[in-house]
Amino acid sequence: MTSPLEQKKIRITGPSVVTANRTWDGAVVYRTADRGWSTALADAAIVGTSDDARALLAEGVADDVGAVGAYIAPVEVKEGGVIKPGNLREHIRSKGLTIDLLPA
Amino acid sequence: MPLVKQGRITTDLFVHVADGAELPGDGAILISAARFLEDPEAILKRAGKAGVIWPNSRAVDDLVPYLDRLAAVALVFPTFRDGRAYSQARLLRERHGYEGELRAIGQILRDQFVFMSRAGFDAFEVKKDADADAFAETMKRYSVFYQPTGDGRVTALNRRMQLRHSESAGQ
Amino acid sequence: MYAYDELDRTLINERVSEFRDQVKRRLSGELTEDEFKILRLQNGVYLQLHAYMFRVAIPYGTLSSKQLRRLAHVARRYDRGYGHFTTRQNIQFNWIKLAELPDALAELADVGIHAMQTSGNNMRNVTSDQWAGVAPGEVEDPRIWSEILRQHTTLHPEFSFLPRKFKIAITASEHDRAAIKIHDIGLRLHKNADGETGFEVLVGGGLGRTPFIAKTIKPFVHGRDILSYVEAILRVYNQYGRRDNIYKARIKILVHELGIEKFAREVEEEWKLMGDVGLTLDHSAIEEVRSRFSYPAYEKLPHMPDELKQAAADPLFERWRKNSVAPHKVQGYSIVTLSLKPVGGPPGDATADQMDAVADLADKYSFGEIRVGHEQNLALPHVAKRDLPQLWRALDRLGLATPNVNLVTDIIACPGLDYCSLANARSIPIAQELTRRFANHDTADMIGRLHINISGCINACGHHHVGHIGILGVEKNGEEFYQITIGGRADENAQMGVLIGPAVPYAEVADVIEDIVEAYLALRDRPEELFVDTVKRLGVEPFKERVYATR
């Protein structure tokens, strides 16, 4: 996955969220509609246009004390409004390691 | 942008003169290397001290012939991650014996003060007021130094050897 | 072991205080992330996918049992109960909270451990042979010189903001276990015709996007001059290394662009101009450092104790002994490698409980000393041969006696996309699957020495270029693919592997590796011919044919 930290032009092709890592502990967080951060993807504000994505990202980036390295990440919105990560990298960030820690 | 010199915040007596601007008749000036090298003698003869802002991409050798007549050399940190001027500073102080003011300009944060001082800088155009205020305190952060530089601080190795010497003398 | 004195202790405590202030300023907003990033990197703190990652230095791979217990404590108290040993004799913790980091650092500083310069564009942890001081036939203990260089490079006032990271490795043995040819500076300790100790200095090695094998810049630099010579190299690099492009900023690119001869002339000129700047190491200065290394009081022990003779009847013990136990320079002792590559486990990981247990075993059987090697395994460097059977039983209970050292399942792997924000693809699950495929130790024994190295991106933290088989994760249209190279090696005959063909998808990697190994078994001209030697003799074609004929 090309590191999203190298995102240059912002052009989204589907539903997206803004994600970052919380400054004090590094936890994965998502930008919420009420201008905060949440560790739950379900709380994330979903944007559907590039303009909205840009605006949400700018807002996230501006909160440099709250969270670090904000970028736009794709999501899938399933039936009933359930939000799923849009690629493997985001899946891993949201759900955790894909590996067993101890030998099987 | 506060100037810290000799350990305290002080008034900058040097006027930064831009390349196109007219030079004041007297008073201390700080000008670019390009402007200085156009006619060094004229600059050095003028009434008032002269200082040069030397870019970090140019060898200091070209400045060496004038060092004993310059009152200040300013070396540049375009960002604080660009460390070329540390080498330039040590060369000016330790190899070429420069004794005038050696000023750090650019993105200067408190986290570089000790490194810069060890490399020979004695004046700092500090980006943030809080960092300038914290200068004296920050310089006390370290009391142990592993490398010899021209700053005269005693290295860890020298202290160990002295200790060893005095221990063996006391036996 | 090197014993810190009051000065070393003071310095690392001062560094902890400085970092505490930096974290405080970051959390209060006084420092922006852009400013703080460089400062945290200088102290080993990355931001990865899930959390901050904290990399702690284990200089030249030597740890005391007390230090290892403290690492275990940090894993438990500040992380999730485990750590990951890296290819550069560091340990990484994956889930550290920034706000708690200063406390973790202070606890480590208590036992003489630090994280200074384990990342960032400065001189990194100086690495060496994990068997330093105990390997038979060594010129002398390279850790003395590693420690001299460690001190000299720590918080260096001129070279803390280099164009890019800078890594130094030292070996003193004919067989290079420190991979010096893939370092920015590689130092090979040897003696000149007059019997004086000095170094062959190599420069410009490195992996990543543009891999290079280091070239010799000077065949012999006298030991007393090594600091000034290294300083001259660094000064040339600091001034002329590229800063316009992060991918061209390593010294290897400067050496390549100038050519080794011109680069060598620049260094030589700078070195001569430098004159006497207090860097010459006289005999007493070297002895001062040497005197603070302590060595075990070895007993006079038989070469073949009864305990060992008796245990030889147990085939499981014998298999482990033949695989993981190496000769020691002192009769009656052995060097024991502890495999951190259990079948199905993440390569290089150890739990806090394992670390504590290894510390206890080190106290009991290895004079309290542990080593960490670049292959991501641990070693107990001074084990009496009579203790081997007992030690084996204890290690086996801990899952640290997998008899696969240097075999196909002794895989080097970076953390990959499971942890790393730079990664394109996962590394660990590929390694885990491969260890399951080759789980039969008889098969692995029959295959013989074979190093598989896996990197999850072009930055090559898993050293894929120099694996006998190298696996590099790439991304194609959002899917994980892997390029396979063969014939690489990291030792004294270091060379880059050759790509065998198009990248293969995640699900096929293990099949492809099995095909390559089967091809090797069919092609080797005798059982002793190692995989790399078969590749060297035949080239990549027969392997390529085998892999792609049916794909």
Total discrete domains of chain B: 2
- In whole angstroms, the N-to-C terminal distance of chain B is 56 Å
The helix-and-strand class of chain B reads: alpha/beta
CATH topology of the largest domain in chain B: TIM Barrel
N-to-C order of helices and strands of chain B = EEEEHHEEHEHEHHH
Number of helices of chain A: 2
Q: Which percent range describes the beta-strand content of chain A?
A: 25-35%
**Structural class of the helices, strands and pairings of chain A?**
alpha+beta
Query: What is the makeup of the main sheet of chain A?
Result: 5 strands, antiparallel
Could you say which overall geometry of chain A the principal axes of the C-alpha atoms support?
A: globular
The neighbouring-strand order within the major sheet of chain A is: 3-2-1-4-5
Biggest β-sheet of chain B: count, sense, barrel?
A: 8 strands, mixed
Strand order within the widest beta sheet of chain B: 2-1-8-7-6-5-4-3
Reading the helices and strands of chain A in chain order gives EEEHEEH
Instruction: State the helicity of chain A in percent bands.
Output: 10-25%
| Number of separate strands of chain B | 8
Protein name (chain C): Sulfite reductase
Domain Nitrite/Sulfite reductase ferredoxin-like (chain C): 52-110, 346-396
Organism (chain C): Bradyrhizobium lablabi
GO molecular function (chain C): 4 iron, 4 sulfur cluster binding; heme binding; metal ion binding; oxidoreductase activity
